Amino acid sequence: MTKLSPWVSFLLSGALLGVPGVASADELAPRAAESLQITTLTEGLVFPTAIDFLPNGELVIAEKQGRVLVRKPSGETVTAGQLDVDDKTEKGLLNVIHHPAFSTNRTLIFFYSSAKASEQDKHKISLIRLGEDDHLELASEKVLLQGLRGPDEHEMGGGLAIDRSGNLLVGVGDTGCRAHRLPEPPYTPTNFFGTCLTNGNGKVLRVGLDGSIPADNPLFSETSVTACGEKCGDDVFTAPKAPPRKDIWVWGVRNPWRLWTDPKTGNVWLGDVGDIGNEEIDVIPPAGGKHYGWPFREGGQGHPPSECRKVSPDAGDCVDPAYYCRHDDAPGTADAGCKSINGGLILDDCRWPAEFRGKYFFGDNANGKIWTLEPTPARDSVVPGSRKDVGQVNGFLVDFDLGPDGALYAAVMRIPPEESKIVRLAPKVFGSCDAPVPPAAPVVNSPPPEVHPANAGMSLRKKFFGLVALIALATAATLVITQSRES
Question: For 32, phi and psi rounded to 5 degrees?
Fold first, then answer.
């Protein structure tokens, strides 16, 4: 039997994920069930945290305790390698995406908590090559970012995405120090890391894939900013100013677990996990450089928006989220039913039913819910009142990715002895596009994959997706999108 880590014991305590309310089976909402289907692609996984489709149709699966798996198009799954992780509380192997030039350099990008690193330098953002035999070449590791704190508390973050300029975005949590209070009436924050500018916690960072700092980062030319204290609770507005951490792109976030870059606009959609009252989706313009409210505001509540102007440099008022939903026991008129948000992506495949095309799919880690929102025409916010129920999975929803077949895939974590799994959400019948566009990459089409038993030598884990046949599509185009988080 799998040994439960301290993190799993924490889950079971209900302190992080609200176990009540998780569905006993995967199910679609009645309206969604008319045209969509949800199926299990593979089980036998243990604590999956992230999935990422590669350009060649293989699926990379990250597991919290450090195992990396590769599912081949044939359905065979191999263990690619094992990272040496600290998996206590919310730490571990938290994300994986592929390098934009993966087809030539076979490089993967990882966000993980290092077992050998100190609390002051816990999280590693690393490039590691995946060999032609689908095994990680661990000796090739290149660490891009360091100095990211990771004490044995919560809010580690884990977001990874490539922006429209080809730079890497990294969502880093504020390390915990939770207030455990509703945002109103306003209170003195218990954690200032999100609002100070000399450490990387409570931020989204932006670096080149060679580790360089882009010259258009918002703090690149700054010399004196609001400095962080040694402890998260230190009041940063009474301390001397100091030079900034120049890889900071946006600040004022709490637990940026999933990032996704919209290829049509360059806007970055961030799912920011809340504290006790509200869960947020922020839509961030490509330039970054703004304060997104935490710890002064949660959702649309808390201190007045002008509070963020206390930070030097003054980036303007706090930017409220494009969308927020409240916990069931929190007051207010916002959508209810949220517990721990899991950011998603806009599904643009023209073969999906019209009511789902162009919608932002997202979910909830703790209760397994899947919803859609309607983006505004400029795709820079969300149409008020547009949330629709899609369905619910049996477990903790941790990541989304689009498959080469046009289906939406989700990683679902469950507590042993229950096996974690991957589910596939897709139209019952894919439609055809009125105005097909020639694809930028070879088009892969596959029938709905069958559920494959876990490989005997694979020590319970991952994944799936058998793209069995390559056929040329004469009239249909497949939009290949490989990252969620991203999700």
Answer: -65, -35
DSSP of 293-332: -TTTEETTEES-GGGGGGSSS---SPPPPSEEEE-TTS-S
How far is Cα 71 from Cα 459, in angstroms, rounded to an integer? 14
The SS3 of residue 480 is coil
pLDDT surpasses 60 at 173: yes
Residue 403, token pair as written in the block: 């498959």
Instruction: Tell me the backbone φ, ψ of residue 421, rounded to 5 degrees.
Output: -155, 175
The dihedral sign for the CA sequence 338, 173, 136, 64: negative
92: phi > 0 → left, psi -120 to 50 → alpha, else beta; which? left
Residue pair 163/138 in contact by the 8 Å Cβ criterion: no
Q: Looking at the DSSP assignment, which residues form a beta bridge with residue 61?
A: 51, 69
Q: Is residue 96 within 8 Å of residue 60, measured between CB atoms? A: yes
**What's the CA gap between 142 and 210, in Å, rounded?**
9
Q: Give the pair of three-digit tokens for residue 203.
A: 């931020």
Q: How many CB atoms sit inside 10 A of residue 414's CB?
A: 20
Token pair, residue 383, equals 């149409």
Q: What sign does the CA torsion over 178, 362, 92, 102 have?
A: negative
Cα–chain center distance at 231: 27
Mean pLDDT over all residues of the chain? 87
Query: Could you tell me the two tokens for 199?
Result: 């450490």
CB atoms within 10 A of CB 351: 18
- The structure tokens listed for 314 are 């003054």
- Residue 203: which of 256, 271, 136 has the closest Cα? 256
Q: What is the CA radius of gyration of the chain?
A: 21
Distance, in Å, from the CA atom of 350 to the CA atom of 358, rounded to the nearest integer, reads 9
* H helical segments located in 65-188: 102-105
Cis bond upstream, residue 427 (ω within 30): no
Q: Count of H helices and E strands in the chain?
A: 3, 27
Confidence class for position 21, pLDDT limits 50, 70, 90: very low
CB 247 within 8 A of CB 145: yes
Q: What residue has token string 């303007």?
A: 316
C-alpha 125: how far from chain center: 14
Of 13-27, 162-176, 279-293, 304-318, which gets the smallest average pLDDT?
13-27
Which pLDDT band holds residue 434 (cuts at 50, 70, 90)?
Answer: confident
Tell whether omega for the bond before 189 is within 30 degrees of 0, i.e. cis: no
| pTM of the predicted protein model | 0.86
Q: Which helix (H) or strand (E) holds 169?
A: strand 168-172
Return the number of other C-beta atoms located less than 10 Å from residue 216's C-beta.
Answer: 15
Task: From residue 210, give the alpha-carbon distance in Å to each of 1, 55, 261, 438.
Answer: 42, 21, 20, 32
